[in-house]
Structure to design on (601 residues):
């Protein structure tokens, strides 16, 4: 597939390929499992589950346990430490992909093989085809795609570990395709200092504003951060453009070199124009004003990213937000076949050739509540040392058998050594395209607020906050980011929310009317489930606390997580904070706090 003629063929036949894949979902799923078992059954990990040497689907279904990352970490650590025997899979691995670890879990190391990379590239091409079918003229302009990299980590085995976006930005595939149509010179993307990289990428985008037809990043959080950066630096951008001189603090050699071929001389007309646009009190529609030929905004806006939808709609001024695909460090899952669907209606059609998918039904008691599985010892796996065997094996449903409207946690088996692996994402079936199911992303499993027996999930919180923020709209106040934690430092404990607010017309902190803010607390509590409300009424949970933080506090939170190893490009704002340090960062930006009135409203 790396071959150019093959890529051309995929583009030409793209829609037919998609039709074939989705029409043959059942056969393809059978086939992929068979291939994985034929190739990998002899590995140390899998072989113990096939004591008779019979590695067929039935034995797989009966014997192979459902696992989490923690269960397979010892095997992965051995590979990272240089053991070369066939531990999880027979193929050599090319490197490890390091997950972001920002959505509630620790960063993970996921093995990557040449084959798994090919599958990802194929996935990318297919989602590209769908978007190109939807928007004409995409080959005629340039993309301002904000990409950032992290330093690679070495492992004792000599293999490199890096976030997928970092890995991808260094491949020839990227250099020969996306990088060529991007306004950001490759050296500005490969700069390890994220602030210098962001400055140069945005400056390049402003200098080539007439050519840009798409602006975006992998996740909406990065885009929101970039627009804020623009708000903070637009005067400096204008000054650089006016004088033709790049700011001295850009010291990275690659960036300076690359920018010298774009920032070639003074351009006072362009500087005046950008200044005129940016000095407008309201930044509503700023993206459209700065980049007049823009066709769509690209970036994942589902799941925890949905908190950025209203901000990006505001800045975009009516430009469609396109959430193209659903991927993780582990594998690619599905693509959005309706790029123009509204952010909250986005569903991803699973592509059956990327991995073998199974689904664990999740209790849906009103809002897609994640379920915690009870653990039961089971014979076939006791000797494997995997304690996490669960009765849920019998409940797993194949891709073809998921039911419309039902919630599931996705479980994958990949050719690169993950077998019945819980990804940790909860999805809801919203429809079918041919025979392939379509899923809405609901939430990360286990991202919950909880004081007692009640559990408030990421989805519950998002819905409650969406309800509450409506009452801020008439005051011209926007919620630009939120997070939360369960505060059990006193008894009874309480939920604490952090909100970053801004006025629609400026970055000024809105004047906070205590009554309105208390009402927000109230609406959030009202939106929670029966168990929360009854605990609140009984006094087992204290009044919800809302802490408003100053502009830029959530940028500091992102800086904190990226300093700990997360990549900006893969950053997902944690909806529920577990880290004391992260809580401290948001607390230090606090400018007001409000409590829900004593009883639930
Ligand atoms: P990482 O492995 O760090 O790239 O993170 C992967 C995780 O990001 C997934 O398991 C999801 O929780 C989340 N994610 C990826 N794509 C999407 C999407 N389209 N919508 C919502 N969440 C997503």
């Amino acid at each position: 597939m790396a071959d150019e003629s093959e890529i051309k063929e995929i583009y030409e036949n793209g829609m037919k390929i998609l039709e074939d894949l989705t029409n043959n979902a059942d056969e393809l799923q059978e086939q992929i499992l068979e291939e994985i078992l034929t190739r990998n059954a002899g590995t140390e990990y899998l072989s113990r589950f096939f004591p008779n040497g019979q590695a067929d689907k039935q034995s797989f279904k009966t014997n192979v346990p459902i696992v989490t990352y923690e269960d397979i970490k010892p095997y992965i650590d051995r590979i990272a430490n240089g053991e070369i025997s066939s531990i999880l899979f027979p193929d050599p691995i090319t490197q490890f992909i390091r997950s972001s670890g920002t959505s509630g879990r620790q960063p993970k190391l996921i093995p990557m093989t040449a084959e798994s990379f090919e599958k990802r590239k194929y996935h990318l091409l297919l989602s590209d085809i769908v978007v190109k079918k939807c928007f004409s003229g995409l080959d005629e302009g340039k993309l301002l795609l904000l990409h950032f990299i992290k330093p690679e980590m070495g492992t004792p085995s000599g293999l490199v570990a890096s976030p997928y976006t970092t890995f991808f930005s260094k491949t020839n595939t990227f250099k020969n395709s996306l990088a060529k149509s991007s306004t950001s010179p490759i050296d500005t993307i490969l700069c390890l200092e994220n602030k210098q990289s962001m400055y140069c990428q945005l400056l390049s985008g402003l200098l080539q504003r007439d050519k840009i037809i798409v602006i975006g990043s992998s996740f909406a959080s990065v885009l929101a951060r970039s627009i804020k950066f623009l708000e903070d630096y637009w005067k400096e951008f204008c000054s650089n453009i006016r004088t033709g001189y790049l700011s001295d603090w850009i010291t990275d050699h690659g960036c300076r070199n690359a920018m010298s071929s774009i920032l070639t001389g003074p351009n006072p007309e362009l500087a005046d124009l950008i200044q005129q646009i940016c000095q407008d009190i309201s930044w509503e529609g700023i993206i459209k004003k700065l980049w007049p030929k823009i066709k769509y905004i690209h970036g994942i806006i589902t799941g925890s990213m949905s908190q950025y939808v209203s901000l990006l709609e505001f800045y975009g001024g009516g430009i469609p937000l396109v959430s193209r695909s659903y991927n993780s460090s582990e594998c690619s899952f599905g693509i959005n076949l309706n790029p123009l669907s509204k952010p909250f209606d986005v569903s991803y059609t699973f592509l059956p050739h990327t991995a073998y998918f199974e689904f664990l039904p999740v209790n849906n008691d009103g809002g897609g509540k994640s379920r915690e599985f009870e653990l039961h010892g089971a014979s076939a796996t006791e000797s494997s040392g995997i304690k996490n065997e669960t009765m849920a094996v019998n409940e797993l449903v194949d891709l073809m058998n998921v039911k419309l409207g039902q919630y599931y946690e996705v479980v994958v088996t990949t050719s690169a050594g993950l077998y019945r692996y819980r990804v940790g994402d909860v999805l809801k079936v919203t429809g079918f395209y041919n025979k392939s199911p379509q899923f809405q992303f609901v939430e990360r499993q286990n991202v919950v607020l909880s004081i007692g027996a009640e559990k408030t999930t990421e989805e519950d919180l998002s819905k409650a906050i969406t309800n509450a923020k409506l009452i801020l709209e008439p005051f011209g106040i926007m919620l630009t980011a939120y997070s939360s934690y369960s505060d059990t430092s006193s008894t009874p404990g309480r939920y604490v929310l952090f909100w970053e607010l801004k006025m629609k017309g400026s970055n000024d902190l809105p004047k906070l009317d205590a009554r309105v803010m208390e009402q927000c607390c109230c609406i959030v509590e009202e939106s929670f489930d029966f168990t929360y409300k009854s605990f609140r009424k009984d006094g087992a949970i204290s009044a919800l606390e809302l802490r408003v933080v100053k502009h830029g506090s959530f940028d500091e939170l992102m800086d904190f997580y990226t300093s700990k190893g997360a990549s900006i490009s893969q950053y997902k704002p944690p909806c529920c904070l577990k880290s004391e340090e992260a809580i401290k960062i948001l607390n230090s930006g606090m400018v007001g706090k409000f409590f829900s009135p004593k009883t639930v409203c």
In short: The first strand starts at residue 95 and ends at 98. The chain has 22 helices and 22 strands. The chain has three domains: 20-83+346-444, 142-294, 448-595. Residues 99-100, 103, 164, 300, 302-303, 323, 326-329, 423, 425, 441, 444, 570, 572 surround adenosine monophosphate (CB under 6 Å).
